Here is the input.
Amino acid sequence: MFTGIVEELGEVVAVEERTDAARLRLRGPLVTQDARHGDSIAVNGVCLTVAEVADGEFTADVIAETLRRSSLGALAPGSRVNLERAMALGARLDGHLVQGHIDGTGTVTARTEADGGTDITVSLPPGLGRYLVEKGSITVDGISLTVVEAGDDHFSVSLIPTTLALTTLGHKQPGDPVNLEVDVLAKYVERLLGGRTAPAREEADR
Here is the structure.
């Protein structure tokens, strides 16, 4: 579990293509300070398991399902990535509860400079719009953000200078892909409400 508060802007050192998979080697001196084999580190919002760690770098394997659902397959040596270690129990929850399980990818469609920050609009894959509400939370490339506008096929967020300086969103331009994870609480509520209403409908049909 993560918070969506990026700890470090890391860099892809190497990408090893494998059959329906890939192994990434990434530089992140901060997140590797106490990292061990088997630990979880979010890379652009994707929860990956540390395979090896040494000299401020770590490697992680990315399976076909993750490559299909996320933008990690587009990474190349030199790509910048948002890095966050798994949250510790008892620590402050400055963002929101983030699983690191990507629901799909969106595309930056607009970027507008605003007073004191930048507004970004992102397209939504079909079916995800129902989980967003204004002032709710969404994770974009591993960053916990507040939704400003929630549409059926898009949403917008406002970024403060600190977010622009310390994350990949400072460099994203229209046309660039981003990983998206909606608030898991919304999905649980939908599931629970669906389960409660089904028996009522069945009883009415008898």
About this structure: The helical segments are 64-69, 161-166, 184-205. Residues 197-206 have pLDDT under 50 and may be disordered. The first helix runs from residue 64 to 69.
